[in-house]
Amino acid sequence: MQAAGAAPRLAAARVIALGLGVPGVAGAASVFGFAPFYAWPVPILAVAALLLVWTHSLTPRQAALSGFAFGLGYFLAGVSWVYVSLHDFGSMPAPLAALATFLFCAYLAFFPAGAGWAAARFARSKGARIALGAASLVLFEWLRGWLFTGFPWLNLGTSQAPASPLAGFAPILGAYGTSLAVTAAAAMLAGAIASRAWSRGRAILVAGLVGIFLAGGVAREIAWTRPAGPAVPMALLQGNVAQEIKWREEVRPRILEDYRRMIVAANAPVVIIPETALPALLDQLPPDYVAGLREHARAAGKHILLGTVERNPRGGEIDYYNSVVSLTEPGMPSYRKRHLVPFGEFIPPGFGWILAVLRIPMSDFARGTGREPPLTAAGIPLGIAICYEDIFGEEVIETLPAAQVLVNVSNDAWFGRSLAAEQHLQASQMRALEAGRWMVRSTNTGVTAAIDPLGRVVSRLPQFTAGTLVEKVEPRTGMTPYARFGNLPALLLVAALGAAAVARRRRG
Length: 508
Description:
This protein is of the alpha/beta class. The protein has two domains: 11-223 and 487-507, no CATH class; 227-479, Carbon-nitrogen hydrolase (Nitrilase/N-carbamoyl-D-aminoacid amidohydrolase, 4-Layer Sandwich). The protein has helices at residues 2-30, 41-55, 60-79, 82-89, 94-122, 126-144, 170-194, 200-220, 252-265, 287-300, 393-396, 420-435, 481-485, 488-507; strands at residues 226-227, 232-238, 270-273, 303-314, 317-326, 334-336, 375-377, 380-386, 405-410, 439-443, 449-451, 457-460, 467-473, 476-477. The strands form three sheets. Strands 6-5-4-3-2-13 form a six-stranded mixed β-sheet, with helices on one face. Helix 1 (2-30) crosses helix 3 (60-79) and helix 7 (170-194) packs antiparallel against helix 8. The longest helix is centred in the N-terminal third of the chain and has 29 residues, at 2-30. The radius of gyration is 24 Å and the shape is globular. The relative contact order is 0.13.
């Protein structure tokens, strides 16, 4: 009787281990595919493991739970740095910050859960389920990138930048197309493993797996853009101002003086200063401070781009903008951030009570309007993205073909000594690949870096140090296929793969 009772318990434990434990571990391990580790094969192996688990799911609900476990491991390991922002810098009590972080990661986990449900609901055979699972993962990843303003952080395709052969698909199909290459490679690997014996089908899958890597490697060798002029030195400033002291009145004079000194000492015709670098609104800076910088720029032939906060009276209200201002151009033109961070830069309707819990300064910005033209410095049109705007590939390419260099100014000090800054750097590497442009990053505490059109970090400053990075940056012109067509081709491929898998089910 005891043996008879033990059998169901062992079976249940096996189901839990296979259906929840394996996907959870695989999801958490996927983070090693991203910066700072760059072990790009790991997400491919992890997705293959998830797809194999889905072939054993008896119901769509089981597949959804396995997908949820994968997503929860993935995001708890990958974006739990949200806790640092909420607790360490937002003053949210530790238990509440931990709960909020968990709920956020759980929300994100519903997207791979949805992919699992769809795979099991609309495909029965192992092959069809694997194929539909690969397509569904990318479809739900794309949904995650726009629903509720979107959060396309840690997209599977980004893990392949810059060294994987699959990164060759980035300038053709963008990050989502590269994600599809990841899930397709994982599907072929899973299909080959699931085959019971060596067969013609397994040989085709292995050949396809080799072929997708060869195709990506060949695509990497194509020069989609061309030089538009000689390389120009650009100075990228990193002030390393601790977030917890930045807005204190007693340290403001020192911060202003430190940045003035760095600007004057920068030996480059273009000087870029990080997001909201100076602890004051633009019109609250001492008049002689701004005038002195403009005079120095005219005398030294410099073009200064300053990350700052602008305010604009509108009727009886005042709009605040997270901006990059060209201090030295006539009229001081600016780029105003359009894609704001929920709860960090604006409070969604119905969530005003959060302001009573969080103590985040400047959390009610207005959005910039329309497609803002590039700013020009040293005769080079610059496509600007502020903070996490550069994780939205289709928004970055809106500045093309006019922009010849991409610029990101950021302040990842909000996330302390976590993985966030390195992961953000890799997102910029993907944007450089997609656009076929140099990407330069000026950040408060790191990672300040210069990235070439192949997504490689040419030079960078150590995190949490003050310094100036000077790098010669080549303006480029021309359009990659992704810059021309955006995400549409990748989504059409996802739809075609999904339709083929569903059609195979119906034929069965």
